[in-house]
Amino acid sequence: MGIIPWAVYGNANSMVTWGWEHGGEFFDEGKQQFTTAGPENIAALEWMVGYAKKYNITTLSGFQSGFGALGLDGGFIQGKVAMQPFGPWELPNFKQYGPNLHYGVTFLPAGPAPAPPHSSWVGGWCMGLPTGAKNSDQGWQWLYWLGASPEGTTMATQISVAMTFSGSKTTPALADQRKNSELAPFVAILEATLHQRPVTPVTDYYMGALDRHVGEALYGKAVAKDALAAADKESNQELQNALSGK
Amino acid sequence: MSQRAAIVRGHVNRSRISPAAWRNFRAGLLFGAPAIIGLLAFSIYPILSSLVDSFTSFDMIRPAKFVGLGNYTTLFTQDSLFWSTLYNTIYYVVFAVPLGIIVAFLLAMLLNQKIRGLSIYRTIFYLPSITPFVASAVLWVWVFNPQYGLLNTILAFVGVKGPGWLGDPNWSKPALILMSIWGVGGLMVIFLAGLQGVPSEQYEAAGIDGANRWQLLRHVTIPFMGPYFLFGLVAGLIGGFQYFTQVYVMTQGGPANSTNVYALYLFQNAFSYFKMGYASAMAWILFLLIAACTALVFRSSASRVYYGGS
Predict the structure, then answer these.
(1) Structure ipTM
(2) Which residue of A62, A218, A246 is in closest CB contact with B147?
(3) What class is the A11-119+193-243 domain?
(4) What is the sign of the dihedral through the CA atoms of B31, B33, B34 and B35?
């Protein structure tokens, strides 16, 4: 198999990955609305659905279940899947279970214009200060130290398996990673980051809704446009409730 | 009324009971205190709290706002997932509960024979029911594996190409129902006890009247097993409506929402989206649904279940 488009860490993460690669957007900051059902995202999902139909998603699901406990990493290491969107946190698996694996790392292919030729998105963990938190000044100083200072970002990189925090491109840790032949391609991809998932009070809900509706489209239970519109409708209602304090 | 009865009935009147009985009562309360406090703190308080929360927008971060019946009306009128998860749950209950009762009864009948190594067979069939849910679920993921799984390997052996099971929306619910048989050991033991409680003279009398094996089963065994079937049905209903762990471990509600059950959606609302008020409303609807089903079963079975005696 060349690639399994919906296996980029679940349906929702797959959707945002290929949506952005097609030049789509998922959130309108000005209107504070989810805008998933835009033409580029619909095209991205239709491409995924076409793939699911062509190769039969149920058959592919069976194929994937043969990858073993490592999931998609297992398929990649065993040579059953040729290409896999992944991050540097998978490298330990590759080293342990596929010490002789030969692979290269590069950008994802971009969709038709106006999609940017090279882009990537970042996700992961985030920390925040809730409204009304006690000692918010001290809390902010700590967040700033961990997220932006040379010492904090170095420590964050050392204790996590992921790359360093977004917004800290000057961190010494990143310079070290750039010298590392395995990590250098990831640094280049990180530096081309254009997107992150929408930052809203209901992003978890949105990703859940996207996961469900994209799944229904992939399994032929809904057409791509309707599936994305349904995710928007539910999530915008949820966002409206959250913003109005309901 | 004796002093003891007065205490037991809760009408404690210090002027009417002796100092010794009063001391005993206090000592009893003191010894029972850990359980009573535990019950109040970890059962009664959360139950009442969830009832109050179900009328609020509580999200564990901001102060709760009273929304009246808002959560309930949203669930019934706007939330399509509420209905689809309820459908998936009822689908599971309708098929898995009767199937579990039938299989448990058949196993109990088989294990009620006088054969060598009976206790070993009983142990073997009972063991799966005490295996932790998560461990069983992980095991069954492999049993259902379309490529290398035990089930499809056996089907292939007899010339049948097995389905995708958990990866196929048309087969995922039947797969979970099939898997539910794995846990019938507990009910089987109860049925076994019930079978051994059927008076032997009833079989002898029916035998003298010329009853064959099927007639003995139909007119002697099954009527005497009525209370046990009723227990199996009620316990199955209560457990079935709360079906969660296996789905959480095996499918996370997929593929294409086909195994997204009510309790999983409730859990997601509470602990993924932090909509505690909404999740509490779901929990109370589930409670009322289970209570209504249980009451319906009891009412409809009142004249049919034979409890022995006259």
Answers:
(1) 0.83
(2) A62
(3) alpha beta
(4) positive
